[in-house]
Amino acid sequence: MTDVRPPAVSADGGVLHTLFRSEQGGHEQVVLCQDRASGLRAVIAIHDTALGPALGGTRFHAYASEEEAVLDALNLSRGMSYKNALAGLDHGGGKAVIIGDPELIKTEELLLAYGRFVASLGGRYVTACDVGTYVADMDVVARTNKWTTGRSPENGGAGDSSVLTAFGVFQGMRASAQHLWGDPTLRGRKVGVAGVGKVGHHLVEHLLQDGAEVVITDVRAESIERIRSRHPQVQVAPDTGSLIRTPGLDVYAPCALGGALNDESVPALTAKVVCGAANNQLAHPGVEKDLSDRGVLYAPDYVVNAGGVIQVADELHGFDFDRCKTKAAKIFDTTLAIFARAKEDGIPPAAAADRLAEQRMADARRG
């Protein structure tokens, strides 16, 4: 489970100051974790539990400073509150970060120590995979607590969540087509997919089955070859810059790194729809208005890529793929509702999504 929203908190004024500023998140609890024996240094941030226990993944990353790690945990946990709310889950938002290069310091001892900190919260925080952590890691973490998801099927989990993530993005794309062109299909449309790895290659399969013309790009030659070997009709752009300038492109699907929509890329877009699996696609506040001003329909990333969190949440109740797929299919209706709210309020879809999520959390607080 990965990051979902643009930064809400910056280093200006210091980390501690930001913890208590409601306009920058108003987090309920932030836990600093340290285990000298294993070398663990981690931060667990619980943003909001109005809807239920906080749910969000564990990121393992070599942060430049402890302050940077805390700020990342704050931003990511806030984003999970919004993502879980619009996914219709009975979960609030939380996130954890482990400080250090996972290639150098990740050990079983460290993961077990981290799991004990998760256990100490008594179920207020439920963890899962994120950047730098994998299903095998969650299997280890789960040995010390019962609030770990994203485990392997052999250990009672659901395994890889990329299948339902891609399915949810496809539903968001169908909703975008319905809203803009009056028909919930990509048949005959040209779709550019930037990043065809774990999620992107599943998305390409959905698009081809739906009759779309697909153009792809990826920094990894093996990822492109995997698709081209099965679907030689798929076109390849040399890089993302070339992809977004493709003549006749109807839909742009960023499925790689965050910040894909920025001051350089937005003016160059030829597509009329942006809908992809990447997290934090808006490089900074204001980009959503730039898209709207250019007549580009933006399907908010944290709405359409919620299939993964739907899956790991379901794992807590005994994973059932068909049940999860039914829930992920509702991303179509949620996306349409966001577009309708945006039109009614005269605001960009990203702002409308925020309002809907905030309304659900506020209603829950009122009981």
UniProtKB/TrEMBL annotation:
<protein>
    <recommendedName>
        <fullName>Valine dehydrogenase</fullName>
        <ecNumber>1.4.1.23</ecNumber>
    </recommendedName>
</protein>
<comment type="similarity">
    <text>Belongs to the Glu/Leu/Phe/Val dehydrogenases family.</text>
</comment>
<dbReference type="InterPro" id="IPR033524">
    <property type="entry name" value="Glu/Leu/Phe/Val_DH_AS"/>
</dbReference>
<dbReference type="Pfam" id="PF02812">
    <property type="entry name" value="ELFV_dehydrog_N"/>
</dbReference>
<keyword id="KW-0963">Cytoplasm</keyword>
<feature type="active site" description="Proton donor/acceptor">
    <location>
        <position position="95"/>
    </location>
</feature>
<dbReference type="InterPro" id="IPR006097">
    <property type="entry name" value="Glu/Leu/Phe/Val/Trp_DH_dimer"/>
</dbReference>
<dbReference type="InterPro" id="IPR006095">
    <property type="entry name" value="Glu/Leu/Phe/Val/Trp_DH"/>
</dbReference>
<dbReference type="Pfam" id="PF00208">
    <property type="entry name" value="ELFV_dehydrog"/>
</dbReference>
<dbReference type="InterPro" id="IPR006096">
    <property type="entry name" value="Glu/Leu/Phe/Val/Trp_DH_C"/>
</dbReference>
<keyword id="KW-0560">Oxidoreductase</keyword>
<feature type="binding site">
    <location>
        <begin position="195"/>
        <end position="200"/>
    </location>
    <ligand>
        <name>NAD(+)</name>
    </ligand>
</feature>
<dbReference type="InterPro" id="IPR046346">
    <property type="entry name" value="Aminoacid_DH-like_N_sf"/>
</dbReference>
<feature type="domain" description="Glutamate/phenylalanine/leucine/valine/L-tryptophan dehydrogenase C-terminal">
    <location>
        <begin position="159"/>
        <end position="367"/>
    </location>
</feature>
<dbReference type="GO" id="GO:0043837">
    <property type="term" value="F:valine dehydrogenase (NAD+) activity"/>
</dbReference>
<keyword id="KW-0520">NAD</keyword>
<dbReference type="GO" id="GO:0000166">
    <property type="term" value="F:nucleotide binding"/>
</dbReference>
<dbReference type="GO" id="GO:0005737">
    <property type="term" value="C:cytoplasm"/>
</dbReference>
<comment type="pathway">
    <text>Amino-acid degradation; L-valine degradation.</text>
</comment>
<keyword id="KW-0101">Branched-chain amino acid catabolism</keyword>
<dbReference type="InterPro" id="IPR016211">
    <property type="entry name" value="Glu/Phe/Leu/Val/Trp_DH_bac/arc"/>
</dbReference>
<keyword id="KW-0547">Nucleotide-binding</keyword>
<dbReference type="InterPro" id="IPR036291">
    <property type="entry name" value="NAD(P)-bd_dom_sf"/>
</dbReference>
<dbReference type="GO" id="GO:0006574">
    <property type="term" value="P:L-valine catabolic process"/>
</dbReference>
<comment type="subunit">
    <text>Homodimer.</text>
</comment>
